[in-house]
């Protein structure tokens, strides 16, 4: 049986924005399910040292500044925890210095990193911020991106038989790793694991003569890919959770973002079979974290798996 990422902390990037607060709420709930602590992390740019701002009579020391920031982070976390029923979750705020994405990735290590889709530094019209995209590209462990806008619902149920964790598979090592992570998340919630493989007719029309390869054959190949993904994920056991698996015709990101409606979490691999080997984040995962109506986890295959 798969295990959730082995760490006693869920790292959450915070910057005082509404998006970061939404991410913090998600991280607290997740930590409560895991029996873990939350480490909110804020990153201060190295080229804007904290002692450079006005400080009344004399300038406050860096230690005073950090203590003030940690106190405000703790206060915000307490407010969010009270609103989400997560008061028992330990909170360990941290202030770091440097490039935001790099510091967040380094803090999380191989553990779970949770981010809002856009922070204070994001362009007003941008759907996905640069920090969340960079973290999804470079993190060594899973990254969950939580959007905060009227088109998303956050997490619907979290626990219970009606809870649903959706995962997209394509037979790649990344999608198998995503499948294992999704199963563990579904078990935490006591809900359903919904496995989807999207396929398209790539030989008809401009792709080739429609009689060159029957659609029935393509559908059979899609069914085989789905079955093989499930077998690869659990060669020596079972997922330990209720599984619904299906193939759906359509473009991958369109299918996944549509089926993700009312899901607690959508899980995708960082790169699928169609991605160039040099790309750290594939087009499917990027579009999902940008447009999905629920939080999205991006999972990278380990070196042994990839």
Your description of this structure?
The chain is 36% helix and 18% strand. The protein has eight helices and ten strands. The protein has helices at residues 18-34, 62-84, 100-108, 130-138, 173-189, 215-233, 252-259, 283-291, and strands at residues 9-13, 37-44, 94-97, 113-116, 143-146, 164-168, 192-199, 242-249, 265-269, 296-299. It has a ten-stranded mixed β-sheet, with helices on both faces. The longest helix has 23 residues, at 62-84. InterPro entries: Rossmann-like_a/b/a_fold, Universal_stress_UspA, UspA.
Chart the SSEs and their pairings.
Blueprint: E1 9-13, H1 18-34, E2 37-44, H2 62-84, E3 94-97, H3 100-108, E4 113-116, H4 130-138, E5 143-146, E6 164-168, H5 173-189, E7 192-199, H6 215-233, E8 242-249, H7 252-259, E9 265-269, H8 283-291, E10 296-299
Helix pairs in contact: 1-2, 3-4, 5-6, 7-8
| Overall radius of gyration | 21 Å
Order of helices and strands: EHEHEHEHEEHEHEHEHE
Estimated helix fraction:
25-40%
**Strands of the largest sheet, in order across it?**
3-2-1-4-5-10-9-6-7-8
CATH superfamily of the largest domain: HUPs
CATH class of the largest domain: Alpha Beta
The strand count comes to 10
Distance separating the two termini: 20 Å
User: What is the overall silhouette?
Assistant: elongated
Total count of domains: 2
By CATH, the architecture of the largest domain is named 3-Layer(aba) Sandwich
Kindly name the structural category: alpha/beta
How much strand content do the residues show? Answer: 15-25%
Low-confidence stretches: 122-127, 272-280
What's the main sheet like? 10 strands, mixed
Give average pLDDT, whole number.
Answer: 84
Tally of individual helices: 8
- What fold name stands as the CATH topology of the largest domain? Rossmann fold
């Amino acid at each position: 049986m798969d295990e959730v990422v082995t760490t006693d902390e869920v790292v959450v990037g915070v910057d005082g924005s509404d998006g970061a607060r939404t991410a913090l709420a998600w991280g607290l709930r997740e930590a409560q399910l895991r029996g873990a602590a939350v480490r909110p992390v804020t990153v201060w740019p190295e080229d804007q040292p904290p002692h450079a701002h006005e400080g009344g009579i004399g300038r406050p020391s860096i230690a005073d500044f950090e203590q003030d920031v940690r106190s405000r982070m703790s206060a915000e976390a307490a407010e969010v925890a009270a609103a989400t029923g997560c008061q028992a979750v330990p909170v360990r705020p941290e202030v770091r210095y440097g490039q935001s994405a790099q510091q967040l990735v380094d803090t999380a290590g191989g553990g779970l990193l949770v981010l809002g889709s856009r922070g204070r530094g994001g362009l007003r019209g941008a759907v996905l911020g640069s920090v969340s995209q960079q973290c999804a590209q470079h993190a060594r462990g899973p990254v969950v991106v939580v959007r905060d806008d009227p088109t998303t619902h956050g997490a619907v149920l979290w626990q219970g038989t009606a809870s649903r964790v959706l995962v997209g598979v394509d037979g790649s090592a990344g999608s198998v790793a995503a499948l294992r992570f999704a199963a563990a998340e579904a078990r935490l919630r006591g809900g359903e694991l919904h496995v989807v493989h999207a396929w398209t007719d790539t030989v008809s029309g401009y792709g080739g003569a429609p009689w060159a390869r029957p659609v029935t054959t393509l559908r059979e190949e899609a069914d085989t890919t789905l079955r093989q993904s499930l077998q690869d994920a659990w060669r020596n056991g079972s997922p330990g959770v209720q599984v619904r698996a299906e193939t759906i015709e359509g473009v991958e990101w369109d299918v996944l973002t549509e089926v993700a409606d009312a899901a607690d979490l959508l899980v995708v691999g960082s790169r699928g079979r169609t991605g160039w080997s040099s790309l750290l984040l594939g087009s499917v995962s990027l579009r999902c974290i940008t447009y999905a109506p629920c939080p999205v986890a991006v999972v990278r295959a380990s070196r042994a798996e990839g």
